Amino acid sequence: MSTTRIAPHSRHSFLCKAFLLLVTSLCACAFAPAQDQELFPLSQVRPGMQGYAYTIFSGDKVEKFDLEVVGVMDNFLGPKQSIILVELKGPQAEHSGVVAGMSGSPVYFEGKLAGALSLKLGIFTKDAIAGVTPIQDVLNAVAQPTGSQLSAQVLSVPSDASSRFGLPSGAALEPIESPLVFSGIDPLAIQRFAKDLQGYGFVVAQGGTSVPRADDAKLAAGDMAGMVFVRGDMSINSACTVTAVRGDQVFLCGHPLMSLGDIQMPMSRSRVVMTLSSSLASTKIVTIGGDIGTITGDHLTAVTGKLGPSPRMIPMDLTMLSHGREAKLHIELMDQAKLTPLLVAITTFSGVTQNFLYGDGATLHYSGDIFLTGHPSVHVENTIAPGDSLGSDGFPIAIAMQNVFSRIYNNTFEPAKVDHISLRVESSPGRTSFHIESAWLEKGEAAPGENLRIRALIRPYRGPSRVEETTIYIPEQAARGTTLRVMVCEAEALNRSARGFAFSGGGPSGLDQIITLLNRERRNDRLYVGVFAPTPTLLWDDKELPNIPPSQQNMLDNRPTPGSVQLLRESLVHESSIPLGGPVSGVISLNLQIR
């Protein structure tokens, strides 16, 4: 049998390499946060105690940084909701301070998980002072009441605590901001809707998306994850640091993002491109990876999620047309009553204006359908003419879509489930709009059952006036000797006259009736002619009952409030319209004698 012998110098080299490999492995283990560690109770935290935390400053590398306990502030967030005040140590922490996106970073004392980094000292200070949510409060986040609020709230440090801990007078703690990452979104859209985004403690940032990886769901403490608001050809996501992973349960942020309570929205993996240091507000620049599960809770002391499948989102298809060319976008939106209308507005505005077919100074005609489960679809259609101000001409489309969604979601009858949104916007060069200058009837009197021609003088924007003609019908039941009122007008004026206060949506008694009212709304690019008779009309929810008997009229007149029933002194007995291809303005009222 042959035996292989190792030369002394080779054996020495082999042993050195093995030793180095062992040391490297031990160092790697020392810097990798364990997933099933013991918990360090709040009762054992003392000032001066040394600890450490984990977060990502760049790439996928979870880095360790040191910290020191300044003190414990009892009942700070609320009854039995204390925080641990700490000072971050080390070159990276001292250079960048408390960074947006660092919230949720797991904090350890004596090798045991003690809490999640969650608050920062909201003043200009050279010391990186932060607040830590105790770990037991983080793990109990699913039991927090849904009404707990902390987002964007400034919490003043008591004067006695400031002096005891050596903090400046008037010091205040506030939640560490979470980056709200926009990808493919027009910065002007972010500015337009900034007021709606304020107050939630987000740092708005431009970012991107990364290709999903097979290991996206392999989360560890110190990694980055977040909420998915929009995905597809445009995306909006938030990101913060993972505090702990217990089985398929994920705890992150250490504070609420928007205090939404129990929710269902996609959870994604986030990756850090770099940390941008700033004296005003350092932040992580992040990209969004693949979906890894569901965010299930947004509570006072943590955001919680569950690894696995993601919840459904609302698909939206946007088609833009101009000069025979077509561009299509597909996105998906989170389904949440408070946020979906805003997300629809932001994505609509950006999808229209951030498009190679779009240009200010064009007339935009939009039409689309909102498909709902178990209910008729809602049809939207109108035309927007460019204005003279510097504001984007696509903004009114976004506001119109937001208003429709708000009326659907804010109904008081049942939750609305949107299946799909389809929107088509066609751009035509130049400004197309019309103003009604005058109108006249074929003759000043007519008989019941007669058709009568009516003409209107229309002045286009920067064009010669022209005459448009249509026919009105005098109902057989029109009483002889009465006077009818003929309105030649824009859509909004006829809406108000025909529906009264019920047009505002105060009367319907069900979602179907709200949808009926939405679908009845007249288009702004038509000239309308309405014939009104001096007979009362009863509006009952979405129903119109003309010519009600005097006895019912007297009964309604004595009602203290109209409720879902309303009485109009006139009845719309005939309506006709002329499509003009651009917004119409103006109102002309004429009298017609019935002989």
Explain how this protein is built.
- With 595 residues, the protein is α+β, with helices and mostly antiparallel strands.
- It has 4 domains: 42-175, Trypsin-like serine proteases (Thrombin, subunit H), CATH 2.40.10; 178-307, Beta Barrel (Thrombin, subunit H); 314-429, Ubiquitin-like (UB roll) (Roll), CATH 3.10.20; 434-594, no CATH class.
- The chain contains 11 helices and 35 strands.
- Helix 7 (340-353) packs antiparallel against helix 8 (395-409).
- The longest helix has 23 residues, at 8-30.
- 42% of the residues are buried.
- Residues 1-31, 144-155 and 500-506 have low confidence and may be disordered.
SS-based structural class?
A: alpha+beta
What's the total number of strands? 35
Provide the domain count.
4
Largest sheet: 6 strands, antiparallel, barrel
Mean pLDDT: 82
What percent of residues are in strands? Answer: 35-45%
The poorly predicted ranges are 1-31, 144-155, 500-506
Percent helix range: 10-25%
User: Which strand order spans the largest sheet, edge to edge or round the barrel?
Assistant: 1-2-3-6-5-4
Question: What's the overall geometry?
Answer: elongated
Continuous helix count:
11
Amino- and carboxy-terminal Cα gap = 129 Å
Radius of gyration equals 32 Å
